[in-house]
Amino acid sequence: MGDSVAAKGNSSAKQTPATDPYAIGPLGLYQLVDEHGAEVAPVPELPEGLAIKLLEAMLFQRALDQRMLNLQRQGRIGFYGTAKGQEGAVLGSGAAFEEQDWLFPALREGAIALWRGMQLEHYIAQCFGNGADPTLGRQMPCHYSDGPSRYVSLSSPIGTQISHAVGAARAVQVKGETHRIVGGWMGDGATSSNDFHAGMNFAGVWKSPLVYVCQNNQWAISVPAAAQTASETFAVKAEAYGMPGLRVDGNDVLACYVATKLAADRARRGDGPTFIEMLTFRLGGHSSSDDPSKYRDESIAKQWEKRDPLERHRTWLVNRGDWSEERQEDYLADAGKRITEAIHTVEAAQPVPTETLFTDVWAEMPALLSDQAERLDNDETV
Questions:
Q1: Which residues contact 245 (CB under 8 A, 6 or more apart)?
Q2: So what's the pLDDT on residue 361?
Q3: Rounded to an integer, what distance in angstroms lies between the CA atom of residue 298 and that of residue 247?
């Protein structure tokens, strides 16, 4: 994968065929499969069925994102942010963690929650914010959380999850949970936040059982990477905090998985944190409220479409005899049916009960709130 259309810091990147991303370091670009679906380095042995499961999950997320964006355009939900073009980085990194690990996402990692077992209806209901939403409509859309999956809701302020992740990793250390690690995600824009410095600094000092993943999609809403940093890459920043930095082709789902799995294994051994920059590109807008053509050259997006992580991985599987057009058509038909049924189920749900305005905060409700709850129940003005 060349860097001809990449952001600042990418023009000098080198592709070094190697099986160890730690040997390539923060200035290279770890890659296993190129944009044509051809192996440029030996693909390590993968868990049985994982490669196909990754393609299915990416296809499902692409289809789900489009349906959810359609709902927003129809006025049926208020907001949505797709992962189009970034599915390889999302699912490749997310699949490398284990069930017991705690994950702290940014905006575009919702597919990881589904991967880990979040119910599709709960994912969709979170965007509707109605009575089918287990979080009772208390977060804006795309702020998914799922307790059984150990998937923690992001906060809208940029970068706050970086500090949350290192705090959770410290708790893991204090409790002696040597089987458990933490994953934390961010966009390239979050590296300009105060929380990035605080989180990275504490992670390095504490040798936290933590893997940070930076999805460098080259645009922090309308701010290009060149205006974010003077560093040659984002990955090189890790060295200042006493941890290794890896740089990975974010559109190569297998490279993302292998690099993250190595970092996760390292953290689980007690060897400390790793920071991974995954170079990718946001094909759509930052969110449904955004028009990227107003601030970037969309001909560059057209070039990145040729590096689509779905097509790349699909071609690799087809070349191996593990996938076919017919199988893909069948899978997408089934996925579309599942999504349609889930949307119908969720959209028919009742609004969130008004009494939940007063729940889940106080062990014993203060008199003022008790009075307000009673007046609301009696249809009085509060």
A1: 25, 26, 233, 234, 235, 236, 237, 238, 239, 274, 275, 276, 277
A2: 84
A3: 25
Q: What is the pLDDT of residue 16?
A: 46
Annotated active-site residue 314? The verdict is: no
Spatial separation of the C-alpha atoms in residues 309 and 64, rounded to whole Å = 16
**Predicted model pTM:** 0.92
- The Cα 43–Cα 31 span in angstroms is 10
User: Active site residue: 286, 312, 313, 314, which one?
Assistant: 286
Active site residue 197: no
Which residues does residue 220 pair with via DSSP β-bridges, in sequence order? 223
pLDDT value of residue 381: 62
Residue among 28, 83, 22, 95 at smallest CA distance from 254: 95
Q: Whole-angstrom Cα distance, residue 247 to residue 97?
A: 18
Catalytic residue among 179, 295, 320, 344: 295
Distance CA 236, CA 167 (A): 23
Residues of the chain with pLDDT under 70: 1-18, 380-382
Provide the token pair at 235: 């990955």
* Dihedral pair phi/psi, residue 180, rounded to 5°: -115, 140
In angstroms, rounded to a whole number, what is the distance separating the alpha carbons of residues 327 and 256? Answer: 25
pLDDT of residue 18: 61
Instruction: Check if the beta carbon of residue 269 is closer than 8 Å to that of residue 262.
Output: no
**pLDDT score recorded for residue 351:** 96
Confidence (pLDDT) at 10: 44
| Sequential DSSP letters for 14-38 | B----S-HHHH-TTB-B-SB-TTS-
Cα-Cα-Cα-Cα dihedral sign, residues 304, 216, 161, 171: positive
Given 108, 116, 122, 282, which residue is catalytic?
282
- Report the C-alpha gap between 65 and 185 in whole angstroms: 19
Measured CA to CA, the distance from residue 299 to residue 96 in angstroms comes to 33
What pLDDT does residue 156 have? Answer: 85
- Reference 203, options 274, 103, 137; nearest CA is 274
Q: Respond yes or no: is residue 286 known to be catalytic.
A: yes
The CA distance from 57 to 59, in Å, is 5
